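Record type: ASSEMBLY
Status: queued
Input:
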Amino acid sequence: MSNQRQASSASQVPHLSPAELSYLYTSLSLPKNPIRPDGRSPTQFRPLSAETTILPGTNGSARIGFADGTQAIVGVKAEVEKTVLAADTLDSRSLAQHGDALNREGEEGSAAVSGQGEWVQMSIEIPGYRDDDALPIFLGEMMRESLVGSVEHKDEMAGGLKARLVINKRWHWRLYIDVSLFLPLDLPVSATDIMQVLLLSQPLSYPLPLLSLTTHLALLSTKLPKLKSTGEEDPFFDDDWAAAEYLYPRSKPSSGAFHPVRPPVTLLVVSVGENVIFDPNREEISVADAVLAISITRSHDSEALKLLSIRSIDPPSRLTQPGIPNSENASMLGAAPTENPSQEEVTGVWRPRRGGIKRSVVARMIKTVLGKGGVGEEVLEGLEGVEVQ
Amino acid sequence: MKSLRRDLSANPQAANVTSKVFVRSTKSGKVQKIVRELYLREDIPCSSKLCSQCPSIAPADANGNIAPFVLSERPAGTTAFPGGHYLVPDTNALLNGMDLFEHTGAFYDVIVLQTVLEELRNRSLPLYNRLLALIKSDEKRFYLFFNEFRRETHVRRGPEETINDRNDRAVRLVASWYGSHLQQSAKKSKKEKSIPAIVVLTDDKENLRKAKAEDIHALSLSDYVSGLEGSEMLLDMISDSKDARDAKEAARGDLFYPEYFSMSKLTTGLRAGTLHQGVFNVSPYNYLEGSVKTSAFDKPLLILGRDNSNRAIAGDSVVVEILPQDQWKTPSTKIVDEEAVTRNDNPDSEETEAVVTDRERKALQEEVKKAHGKHSEGKPQPTAKVVGVIKRSWRQYVGHVDSSSAGSQSSGRRQQNVFLLPMDKRIPKIRVRTRQASDLLGQRILVTIDAWDRDSRYPTGHFIRSLGELETKGAETEALLLEYDVQYKPFPKSVLDCLPAEGHDWKVPVSKEDKGWNGRRDLRDLLICSIDPPGCQDIDDALHARRLPNGNFEVGVHIADVSHFVKPNNPMDTEASVRGTTVYLVDKRIDMLPHLLGTDLCSLKPYVERYAFSVLWEMTPEAEIVSSDFTKSVIRSREAFSYEQAQLRIDDKSAQDELTDSMRNLLKFSKVLRQKRMDAGALNLASPEVRIETGDDEGGDPLTDVKTKAMLDTNSLVEEFMLLANITVGTKIFESFSQTALLRRHATPPPQNFEDLTNQLSKKRNMELDVSSSRALADSLDRCVDPKNPFFNTLVRILATRCMTSAEYFCAGAFAESEFRHYGLASPIYTHFTSPIRRYADLMVHRQLASAIGYEGEDGHAVIEGVCTRNKLEDICRNINVRHRNAQFAGRASIEYYVGQALKARGEKMAANGVDAGIEEEGYVMRVFENGVVIFVPRFGIEGVVRLEDFVLPGESGARSVAERRELVAHRTTEFDSEEYTLRVEEKGSSDKTRGVDVELFQRVRVNVSSVKEEGRGAGKRRVRILIIEA
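Status: finished
Output:
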């Protein structure tokens, strides 16, 4: 069971005392003007450096690094695979009723055009975790889900990513997205106690946004060899890599938007009190009332952003140890500890957050992300700034 | 959100590393992105002898030597570049003008770029190999410059730049780099003289333009050649360039042939089994009928007409699609000769061109009619059409210019199109553009096919060189050798260097202490003799037999020990493995090994000691083998007999010496062995062979030299022991090398191969051919006797032989042991061991046997080297199989040519006396067509087509000229019965039943054989004409 515990989001809890937690919470929940430990504004991201096409052997790749040394590298590999539809059809025919079989056939016909979600595979490697631990799998699934379910664009990419992977009725591409997270082992301070902390510690922040942004860039730089065969022939490709085509089609830079369609990004948003805070670091998450992973993409019809999914994440603050008010602390000459600690808030005393998220908070979060000139746009613009070559 | 991009430009090492990225599709269907890193260097020399810098930087080998510099100090100049020049051709220049680059008159000092070489390999493998050969040979001074690896000349592909543009840029960059490099580094003394110009040869207009802008000398191939001496001939050697063809295509939209399927469509179809792959073959009797043998069907698929054969040329590996059943047809029963049908085509006027001319269409129509016949044999067979070509097997073709196509306006030096009629009838005529049409008339010329586009009825090609006048001995012999791809050039020096230094004075060492005696048994005391055809110089084998004290006999076969002289993997060995076999023409022998070895040092000449490889058996007097033994030995042959001499000696009752006795014993054993073999089901096959014995009396009738092969007992004596030796050795090497033994097999022919012959025999002669096993076949062949017609049996055997597959060399690992069988010899295992002087396979087997018996060679090193890698052996097998077949064809063609010449000489002599009546002979009908028959004339070993006009009807004079006879065709009518294989030729409209000739299959007829010159349009060509004078 300890394994499970470790893998849950609770493991993100930093070793902060109740008093520190309380202090942090109070500064972050200051109305309108939260004070973040690193002095950022609520919507400000940590500075990062990004580059694409860093792994020559892959179809597409990207790296994003934070100033603290945490970095993610994503490589995308594509493989041609035979679509096993015929066997399915046979099976279902033999099993299903006659009329049913006809129906199914219709369905499968469309499936062949629209592609299948499992053609995209994602694996995430985080130091200290096994690849079958819950965290990497959960993270991978969360990003894959928005990827395959994402964008529909009438002209450029009808049917979204899934359809883009279809070569013809019998063949398709399979996409392997491999994400590696690297922790800063080359910190300038090399005191042994820090090492101790590092070895024990989990990723310095909840890694989702980092992974998502990197994956986004990697997919934008992904190219598939140019198909030379036509129709239902066995696929046959141009051997010139320069002729390969982008997975996410691009228009000429002159004609407005460079990328008519972009993969989605997933942002991590927390709420502390009435405040909404973006790109939280680990300490900030540990005191958050609510943690949401919001996947957005640019919807092309309206130039506006589109919400793809929201997932709430079990806030780690739930599992922290509560502080004890002076009134109840025997050593402070307070009343003897009662059986049931009082339920009221005492200013300056940390209490684990319990209960759900308020509707209004969720609404505000979404508005901040999607709104005109909001955080979502800022992020996407920032990513576009990374020249994808 | 801010983002930064890491900047690598500051890294000084970055410029030296670059990468090459491409997509690789594997056979299993995987598609991979491949990235190769490229490390650029600065020590790749320019290889010009003018350069003073490069010798110091060029990388040295382990001994500290640098590769000798190639490019001359004083390259040849032209009018445009009087100070000399180096050539830098681009890929297209090589593709279009490889023949020019091989020409010895020009094109020296050529810098071949790595970029160009690689591109060439992707475009054309044969041309790539030819270029490699040029680079390897010293005389033409071709230097392969690894421009992609040299930092200054490496070109990075720009964004949006096509590969072509990039490669063109690389060529230009090299040219400019060479220019400045030589300017800087040329030796001071030479500096006053001009530095050679670097001339880029390219046919790409854009490239020419850019080169001009960058101040680089660049010329198109034809412009460059125009400035050379003898430019007219050289210009003809340029291929019809792609650009020119494209322009033509754009100009005229008509396309005569359907487009080929795309590669991916072909592979999809092949995998799905809807398309089939095979080698395209053309019927020798009907150029419009082809067939493709595919693995999916037992019988070949028919391909009828030009539309369906869709630009495939005999030998190409093609993909076919089966036509719907209503288009299935019977194979044609008509002789259709391209020359005759398309006689009036004009090579220049393409407007009137249609793929299928009316006449061709008519010829096909008649076949369709036949298809509706009711006979079982006449039932329609599946037909197919060619939808793609996997691999062209175009080679150089020998032929002559169709004089009618040369046109009348041959006066000026204008370029014109002419048709070339290839010697090989299965190859369509080739349209060749030439400026020297009038000179080429009456010459044997060599051309190559460049392309066959959809808008052209015939393939287009270009002239390579003239072999000389038609019918001159030199030209015709060379033509034969070229046509059958026989390597006839003299042995290069590197090969001759491998010969023993003593030359003809080489002798078996006297002292037994000498290392030459290591592992050799002294068999000089044995009474060994050799029996060969008269005048044989390369004596491979010798025999002996002697009685042992225990009453048994020791029989020995001694084979020339060629492997002693030809060590594995030296230049001589390589040359021999390429040649594969010695080729025997009537008056010429093209040796596999240099003369010194073949006819002297290896040859088991009488009265001298020679190294040999001996197979010794102990046999009971009943010819049961008790044991066999193999050893390297030294022998001294007592006598070299010819077959006749040996026969006479054996028959001579007075000769009672030991040697004769030994021969008599051998003969006795051979008869027993032969009987055993026959009992096992060995086939006695026949091929229509004659021998030419060139006598010295010039005045005599040359035809008397043409002799059918007489089979003496002594022939079979030698044959039996050679077979026995081969089988014994085969067993031995297979024991030792179960994977790599070089063996020979003859596959059991599939029964359907015999279908036609079985049918014909049962119909015409009521005889049955049992093909269930070789034994059954041998027996039923024995029963096919016509008491009135002694040759009939031989005829059937000849026909039966043609139904079989040919024997082939193979590597033991390539087949299951049960597949090793030699069908014709009825032996479970077989190899070739007995003729190492003239066959490379035997030489390999010698090495394997030597290693199998633990012979360690003179210096104690095993000679196993080169005998144990299966891949290499399989390559060798493939090559020698082809060479072997070609050598046979070349030999036969040579005899045919000789017979033709002999007939001609005789005809001329007779003509001097006032009569040219040809010579009367017996002939046999081998095949019956609707408009002619094929006759085999045993006396000369030739077979020929007899067309309608060549039937001499009763009451008609036989001696008429070709032109006169041709007129007759129109007046002839035929009745053809495809079920009964009969043909009746009559005068049109004649009611007189007696004025007609009936011929049927297998019939003996009187024929008149003469050599005639074609007159009128096909002028200049000579053929053997056969007239049927009496059925």
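Annotation: Chain B touches chain A at residues 1-6, 19, 21-25, 29-31, 33, 35, 157, 161, 163, 262-265, 267-268, 271 (CB under 8 Å).
Annotation: The radius of gyration of chain B is 33 Å.
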